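Reopening this ticket.

The earlier resolution said the output was attached, but the attachment link was broken on my side. Pasting everything inline this time so it's all in one place.
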Amino acid sequence: MSQQLTALERETGRSLLTRTGRRVSLTPAGIVLVEHAEAVLADLERAEAALAATDEGPSGSVRLGAFPTALRMVVLPAMVRIARAERDMELTVTEVDPAEVPDLLRAGQLDIALVHEYDNVPSAMGSGIELEPLLDEVVYLASPTAPNLPDNELIHNHCRSNWIVGKPGTLCHTMTVRTCQSHGFEPRIAHRVDDFAMVLRLVAAGAGVALVPRFGTIEVPEGVVLTALPISRRTRIAYRRGSRSRPAFAAVSAELHRAARSFRGS
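Inline output:
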């Protein structure tokens, strides 16, 4: 990588990186080159999409990344329909955290991915990635007892409760912490668990309370009360810029939207 960057600086006749110890940052010339490179890459994606559109139908392989609850609720139904309808197309799936998606898409390790964001934790895909809306979900407070409080007091009522949150670095962890902070307190974090099914079991066992999006509430154990909050989680389809019109990608997107509509109607 270092040799390639040095060669690129030699070809352009300009310094592209500023090196400070082990850290590097783009120079103004480097920023300009990146912006133009992204435009060129997007044009190449559009050209490949146009060539693919000359085929008789969707074909080839599509590598889809998705977070766990989306795999179950929308990806699996889409996979079943694609397997039945698109005989010349192969869909392969990888479980990924949304934070990993931009790098995987840009590196060509994924073709499409499902990502999410919360009202108080917007996504940060960066340049070169475009997003397509898929589904919005309500977020619930999962607790052992039914609260009889107005919406603006539901969270603060648990300022002394134990909280079950996602692992640090995940959007779900950040969403819970920021939600509690917006109600004037730091959550007393007792457990860090990403699997929402296990989170709900912990709530049922009296281990604490949690914030859980609707995707994570398909199987609610006895002893858990769900209270809808004025918080949303938005799921989006992410593509490399310029690639979304490829017939195979569009076919996968159509089935994901079909599954999302079925989920909304359930």
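Reporter confirms the inline version is readable. Strands lie at 17-20, 23-26, 60-66, 89-95, 112-118, 129-143, 162-165, 188-192, 210-213, 225-240. The two ends are 50 Å apart (CA to CA).
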